[in-house]
Amino acid sequence: MMNIKFHIQELNFYFNNEKVLKGINFEIPANKILGIIGPSGSGKTTFLRALNRMNDLETGTRIEGKILLDNDDIYRADYDVVALRKKVGMVFAMPVPLPMSIYENVVYGPRLSGNNDRIRLDELVEKSLTAAYLWDEVKDRLKTSGMRLSGGQQQRLCLARVLAMEPEAILLDEPSSGLDPISTAKIEDALTELKKEYTIILVTNNTKQAARVSDNTAFFLMGELIEIGSTEQIFTAPNKIETNDYITGRFG
Amino acid sequence: MRIHPRYTQRGAVAVLGGATVLTLMILIFIIVFILEKGLPVINLKFLTSNPEDMGRAGGIFPTLIGTILLPVLAIIIATPLGIFTSVYLSEYTKENKATRIIRFGTDCLAGIPSIIFGLFGYIFFVITLGFGWSILSGGLTLAVMILPTIIRTSEEAIKAVPKSYREVSFSLGATSWQTVKKVILPNALPGIVTGIMLSIGRSIGETAAVIFTAGSSLRIPNSLFDSTRTMAVHFYILAREGISAENAYGTAATLIIAVLMVNLSAYWLMNRFISKRS
Questions:
Q1: Do B129 and B184 fall within a single domain?
Q2: Contact (Cβ atoms closer than 8 angstroms) between residue A22 and residue A224
Q3: Are residues B12 and B110 in the same domain?
Q4: Distance between CA atoms of residues A38 and A246, nearest Å
Q5: Are A85 and B175 within 8 A, CB to CB?
Q6: Are B179 and B91 in contact (CB under 8 A)?
Q7: B167 and A59 in contact by Cβ < 8 A?
Q8: Which percentage of chain A shows pLDDT scores above 70?
Q9: Could you give the number of structural domains in chain A?
Q10: Backbone dihedral region of A218: left (phi > 0), alpha (psi from -120 to 50 degrees) or beta?
Q11: Does B88 share its domain with B36?
């Protein structure tokens, strides 16, 4: 019996009355990497940001249908959004270290929850940075500003910052879109390790990346979920002609 | 006829540079003019002794006290009010009709001549509330006067904090208040301080709003309910009544030096804060 983390039921999403997600239905299993591919404007990012309610920060958004996290509807009126975001962490496309030290960036989340125990925080910093494949590069300069790191290091810092919250699921929105191949490889290695403990959802414009790291792959087009299946099946024997056209590079 | 870009470029450099040089020259001329006439008057005795014969002789000590007390009181009242309002407007409300009206209102208030605030302060604080001509009335009036400036400059500074910082903070499970405290205010601080500096400068130099509300007593005040005279008012009276041009310039020079010192120390504090954080 597979453990399901998210149930998405009849999800419609509107931006200023424009329907950008249309009748999405599927399940996201725990402790797997789900890759979401599709051309830009297909609703991938909007879908991802619906999972931790980051879309709430925008004006003019409206949602229909349900998203269940561990069988609990995250859009019900009295759902604790702050608690949701602690359970479902997010790494953005552009690495954004906050203007503070590497150390303070990593412990930002734990400190918000009132965790100020120095020994515990030190442990968290080492553990999170190690899991993000960054520890060896920064362990001697934790007090320097996170903004002084290279782009690839900044993105791994952002991943470490999410890990330090000890979330249950991690959302990644094209995390390597601006990175060189070596930094990308490090992030992908980290993700493969991390799925043992976390549910990972990876939106990517790079179909090869989805093929490399994800267990399951979903293909979005024009706000619709065209096809979802095991990565192997999607990339070798897709059921839909659109999926085949996209992964073979005929459009997108 | 089309002028070659090389010449339009030279023309632009000449116009832009010329404007900058002209502005600087006017500024330097005013400061040098005042300091040249005023500095010879200033000495320790001038700063620490009481005026005699309506200011014809003696020093300006009581007006120093008044010039410190009024702006300090105004800043203590207006800074928290202004910052809290701007945080509320920019972080806790969505853009709608009400916020637009509030914003338009503050912009209008910021443009009202200070003598109108003086008149308001006289009617409301001095008469209606019965505070009389006092430090309290003057400080409150100045606070009302500088509030719009502090709100608008703080709001601009808060808006200039990158949206991505807010997103990151919220995505890490921060509440609005935690985001304000840990990310927004620290990063908006230089802009907020600039607004406060401008307001301090305005209140130190303010005459019209103060003369109606704090009066022009030359005694050293004992309480918030005593009348006082600021350097700006003292200068105005000395010059207007033709009492002593010499002492008027001395007061003006002291005023300029005071404003300069406030600005320099604020920038020093701010730079220390910024270098400590990064």
A1: yes
A2: yes
A3: no
A4: 8
A5: no
A6: yes
A7: no
A8: 98
A9: 1
A10: beta
A11: no
